[in-house]
Design brief:
Strand content: 15-25%
CATH class of the largest domain: Alpha Beta
Structural class: alpha/beta
Number of strands: 11
Largest sheet: 6 strands, mixed
Number of domains: 2
Radius of gyration: 20 Å
Shape: globular
Distance between the termini: 34 Å
CATH topology of the largest domain: D-Maltodextrin-Binding Protein, domain 2
Number of helices: 11
Helix content: 25-40%
Strand order of the largest sheet: 8-7-6-9-5-10
CATH superfamily of the largest domain: Periplasmic binding protein-like II
Length: 317
């Protein structure tokens, strides 16, 4: 590498608004040559990151909790590009008699896997908010986890391969419900929570929790070689996110006809920046995530926020 060349920093990211300025070149880094590879299916990016194809990645926090607690060589920075309320992602067939969370007790629920962060949050919410414990449900996943987990006593998790999507299998009668990270493409399902938006807004007003599913994660070897990369990546991601918040406020930017009304509603409930990066202001979200991971058997040992994330200077302007 010549004196004028910057080290390459490769990033696998989901192709969504928070990362798009990193993908299209609107945001660059000062001392690194950022090469962002966008993934429509961000799970593929996660897998390729673990295979060593990228220096850093937008990465599943459930998987990160499991790996980090086992001493694997990864380190996250507090950049949270994927956040969703997960009440909306518990689905049942249209004709299902299930109406309330309590009615899930004893039922079969299909999940992507125990290490899926959407499921981690949904199981935690069912327990904390509705008293429905994970050991009261029969969980079914299509494949075994790649990490050996010591699940808590009483958890019933069966691996049952099958053809088609979890939604398709549910609609054929294999499951009473499913918890999946994205909306099914099939028709014939409904949300368990009929007015999930109102439920989620009330949950946020009361708890101030906006669940996060992903964090930017590095191979530790890269940060050992280039420790400045953590702060520079944080700053670049913050700049990208702030650009997209500005875009959101522009009613002509979106394809949605009532975008401005949606923006105003979100501002009223969640304030000007629900997508806050950094530890400050995210303590409760992260403490809850880590607690859920520990309660549900993902963690090999208890860990603190400080052990899980690189310490970053966190300007938010």
């Amino acid at each position: 590498m010549s004196e004028n060349q910057h080290p390459i920093l490769s990033l696998a990211a989901g192709y969504h608004l928070r990362s798009r300025p990193l993908c299209d070149g609107r945001v660059t880094m000062k001392n690194f040559e950022l090469k962002t590879v966008p993934f429509e299916n961000d799970g593929e990016g996660h897998e390729q990151f673990l295979e060593g194809k990228y220096d850093t990645s937008e990465f599943s926090l459930a998987n990160y909790c499991a790996l980090k607690s086992r001493g694997r060589p990864y380190m996250a920075i507090p950049v949270f590009l994927n956040r969703k309320f997960r009440h909306s992602y518990i689905f049942v067939p249209d004709g299902s008699p299930l109406k309330e969370p309590a009615e899930l007790r004893g039922k079969k629920i299909g999940i992507v896997g125990w290490l899926n962060t959407a499921g981690l949050w949904a199981r935690g919410v069912l327990s904390d908010e509705y008293g429905v414990r994970a050991n009261e449900i029969h969980w079914i996943a299509p494949r075994k986890a790649k990490i050996d987990l010591d699940l808590p006593a009483g958890i019933r998790l069966d691996v049952v391969p099958g053809e088609g999507s979890l939604a398709g299998r549910m609609l054929k009668g294999e499951f009473d419900a499913i918890i999946v990270p994205d909306f099914p493409e099939e028709k014939g399902w409904r949300r368990l929570f009929t007015d999930s938006k109102a439920v989620e807004q009330e949950y946020f007003r009361r708890t101030r929790i906006f669940p996060t599913s992903h964090a930017i994660t590095f191979h530790s070897s890269y940060l050992e070689k280039y420790p400045a990369a953590a702060q520079e990546m944080f700053d670049a991601c913050l700049e990208a996110k702030n650009l997209t918040l500005r875009d959101d406020a522009d009613a002509t930017y979106s394809n949605f006809a009532w975008n401005r009304q949606v923006w105003e509603e979100q501002q009223a409930v969640m304030g000007p920046d629900p997508w806050k990066f950094g530890i400050k202001g995210n303590e409760k979200v992260l403490e809850t995530l880590i607690r859920y991971a520990d309660e549900q058997g993902l963690m090999a040992k208890k860990m603190t926020i400080a052990e899980m994330f690189v310490q970053i200077d966190e300007p938010q302007s």
